[in-house]
Amino acid sequence: MKRTLSKALAFALALALLAGAGLPRALAVTDAQWDAIWEEIDAKQSVVAFTPGSDETQRNFAWQSKSVDDPLEPQVRLSKSAEMSDAVEFRGTIE
Questions:
Q1: CB atoms within 10 A of CB 22
Q2: Is the pLDDT of residue 53 over 80?
Q3: DSSP secondary-structure letter at 64?
Q4: For residue 15, how many C-alpha atoms fall within 13 Å in the half-sphere facing its CB?
Q5: Same domain, 49 and 23
Q6: Backbone angles phi, psi at 43, to 5 degrees
Q7: Same structural domain, 38 and 49
């Protein structure tokens, strides 16, 4: 019984190692792929960054948008409810 359990555990661990070994390659991006991604981001000239704040109750939000000549004014609506019923609108400035 003990020997069968040991073999089963060894087999499960070997499968886990094999599955994990292929994971980094699957998530890797080549230089050519990164260049294509960056060109798309650069063409849009609009980037949103949402990062953790100083503690678990705070978040930082940054938005880079197009030039001053862009007819769309940057705006964000924030709400504590999923229905957005109490949304507060923030209109950004371009500097």
A1: 9
A2: yes
A3: E
A4: 6
A5: no
A6: -65, -35
A7: no
Q: Does the CA dihedral 15-21-22-27 come out positive or negative?
A: positive
Measured distance CA(52)–CA(59) in Å, rounded: 5
How far are the Cα atoms of 50, 54, 86, 90, 94 from residue 73, in angstroms, in the given order? 20, 29, 21, 11, 9
Residue linked to tokens 């705006």: 75
User: Are 35 and 52 in the same domain?
Assistant: no
Take residue 87 and report the two structure tokens written for it.
Answer: 């949304």
95 vs 50: CA distance, rounded Å: 20
Are 4 and 10 in contact by the 8 Å Cβ rule? The answer is: no
* Residue ranges making up the domain that contains 35: 1-43
Number of residues written out for the chain:
95
If pLDDT is split at 50, 70 and 90, which confidence band does 39 have?
Answer: confident
Residue 60 pLDDT more than 60?
yes
Bridge partners, 60 (sequence order): 51
Residue 13 tokens read as 């661990």
